[in-house]
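Lab notebook, design round three. We kept the backbone fixed and only want residue identities now. Task for the bench partner: fill in a sequence for the structure below.
Input structure tokens:
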């Protein structure tokens, strides 16, 4: 039959047959005391852990209460901040839309102004050409009229002097009615007759 020591169940060993070995009593006592000390240490750690967990539970409860109070106190501020952010988004969108409309309006006005400027420039050129044509026609008409008047004077002198009416026309240099108009050999016209 096997003799077992009190430490044997802990170690899973059995004592050899033949009885206790010398010095086994000291080892058994040391083993018993170490088991008691380890058990007490485990119980102490367990007690400290329970106390710490209870304090941690109280702290988390207090922290949650403060967070709830902070949430209630901050709710109006957060609501106002959300409303301000929404209003700012609406204002920004409106400003962006107005800026786009303003840019489109300026672009359209600029385009119309360019078209109007080009049309005015074309009309001014056409008017200038018309004035040049009118001036040329007026000069030609004046020269033609002066030539016709000279021709009439010359014809009147010829008819008046050859018909024997007894009156003679004044020469053109005397300042009479026949002297109206430029001389017959005008530098621009040449001599016409």
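Proposed sequence:
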């Amino acid at each position: 039959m096997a003799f077992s020591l009190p430490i044997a169940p802990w170690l899973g060993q059995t004592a050899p047959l033949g009885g206790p070995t010398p010095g086994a009593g000291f080892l058994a006592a040391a083993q018993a005391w170490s088991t008691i000390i380890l058990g007490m240490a485990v119980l102490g750690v367990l007690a400290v852990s329970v106390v710490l967990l209870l304090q941690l539970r109280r702290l988390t409860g207090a922290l949650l209460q403060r967070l709830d109070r902070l949430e209630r106190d901050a709710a109006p501020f957060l609501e106002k901040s959300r409303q301000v952010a929404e209003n700012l988004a609406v204002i920004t969108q409106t400003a962006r839309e107005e800026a786009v409309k303003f840019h489109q309006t300026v672009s359209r006005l600029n385009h119309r102004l360019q078209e109007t400027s080009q049309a005015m420039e074309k009309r001014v050129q056409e008017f200038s050409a018309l004035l040049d044509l009118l001036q040329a026609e007026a000069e030609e008409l004046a020269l033609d009229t002066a030539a016709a008047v000279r021709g009439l004077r010359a014809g009147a002198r010829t008819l008046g002097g050859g018909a024997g009416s007894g009156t003679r026309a004044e020469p053109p240099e005397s300042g009479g009615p026949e002297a109206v108009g430029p001389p017959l050999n005008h530098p621009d016209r040449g001599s016409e007759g």
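Keep this in mind before ordering anything: Residues 127 and 133 are 10 Å apart (CA to CA).
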